[in-house]
Amino acid sequence: MSKLYRSSRRKFISNLGLAGLSIPFANTEDLITSIATKQKNMPLQKKLGIALVGLGGYASGQLAPALLQTSHCYLAGIVTGTPSKIPVWKAKYNIPDKNIYSYENYDQIKNNPDIDIIYVVLPNNMHAEYTIRGFAAGKHVICEKPMAITVADCDSMISAAKKANRFLSIGYRLHFDPYNLEMARLGTAKKYGDIKKISGGLGFKATPHQWRLQKKYAGGGPLMDLGIYVSQGMCYTTGMEPIAVTAQEGKKTDLQRFSEVEQSLTWQFEFPNGLIGYGSTSYDDDMNFLKAEAEQGIFELTAAYTYNGLKGYTPAGNMQFPLINQQAQQMDGIALSIKNNKPSIVPGEMGRRDVKYLQAIYEAMRTGKRVSIKAD
Ligand code: NAD
């Protein structure tokens, strides 16, 4: 790691809680401690057992392999509607029969002391139901992003967590990624002065899975799936919440594929100090960046939201951080907060806030008008 980034991180750690970092980074200490792997003083009680609900691309490609690298949690169980997947998962992850569930007997998980945390990795419209049932079973829940497809669903999920007295976290891996944390640190500490312009984009030319193109399942198009990261990036880099938004739907060149959801979308967040945040997302164009143009220079990530291979630049040089497994950091960070009975740094309230922003962007897109975003 370069000298610059060793010293900035030390400063960041020493400035914890003083840098105007609000909800998203309220518990940054745990986070940085985890990233620095300084876990010596943490309680070393048993690893918490996670059950993955939905064994699709993300669960099988990223989360399950990451759970082989975690220190505070492990893959204890699975919930699947596809029996043919069971032998493979059993063999690969050494999962006992008693920890394997279907969607039908899922609620019986309440009787299983091996499972501490349920991780919902289903299509977006199923997040609310399986999260609420997870809380009814007395478990903690991690729910993938977007938290749900309506704010009302988010409210029900938060209420269920409170009623069960269990933690709800959203699968926001970038809150555990050093490059994105560095953007937040530089922006909120005003390292290069006030930010004069912020922009971000995430998109790729892909044939997404079928459910992602169906409004009923996905709640929308690339905004729900990818644009959510851009919206978040602009908030944690500026340390501000938008007060209004305007938005424009991109031209549809593939009317068949995009009959129900947008193909691409641009939006402009208005922040309280007059700063404008320019966001874009697409299932058609390649883009992956988060760029802050400040009084004394530009700091940015190009490849901002990928699992690895992120690149960051600042007026003082290139960012250099050790390679980490974002998902392992994220799940360990969340497990650790549960063990220590501390609030999650990626709580349901943050997921709800983001769904509220996405809904405001869609309303602005539909109406062509500036839509105010009320603080809760
Ligand atoms: P996927 O289509 O690969 O997997 C979805 C799983 O849900 C499959 O196992 C499927 O069998 C199961 N399923 C159960 N009922 C279903 C139904 N009625 N219709 C369709 N599938 C059904 O999707 P994915 O890419 O794994 O995404 C799952 C969730 O994870 C989404 O909410 C997505 O936004 C999120 N995700 C997050 C990240 C991240 O980086 N945090 C990355 C990818 C996906």
Automatic annotation (TrEMBL):
Q: Which GO terms describe its molecular function?
A: nucleotide binding; oxidoreductase activity
What is the annotated signal peptide range for this record? none
Domain (Gfo/Idh/MocA-like oxidoreductase N-terminal): give its ranges. Answer: 49-172
Q: Gene3D superfamilies attached here?
A: Dihydrodipicolinate Reductase, domain 2, NAD(P)-binding Rossmann-like Domain
Coiled-coil annotation: which residues? none
Pfam families, per the entry: GFO_IDH_MocA, GFO_IDH_MocA_C3
Q: Which UniProt keywords apply?
A: Oxidoreductase
Annotated GFO/IDH/MocA-like oxidoreductase domain ranges read 183-284
Cited InterPro entries: Gfo/Idh/MocA-like_OxRdtase_N (IPR000683), Gfo/Idh/MocA_domain (IPR050984), GFO_IDH_MocA-like_dom (IPR055170), Glc-Fru_OxRdtase_bac (IPR008354), NAD(P)-bd_dom_sf (IPR036291)
**Family per record:** Belongs to the Gfo/Idh/MocA family.
UniProt protein name: Putative dehydrogenase
Question: Organism source for this protein?
Answer: Sediminibacterium goheungense
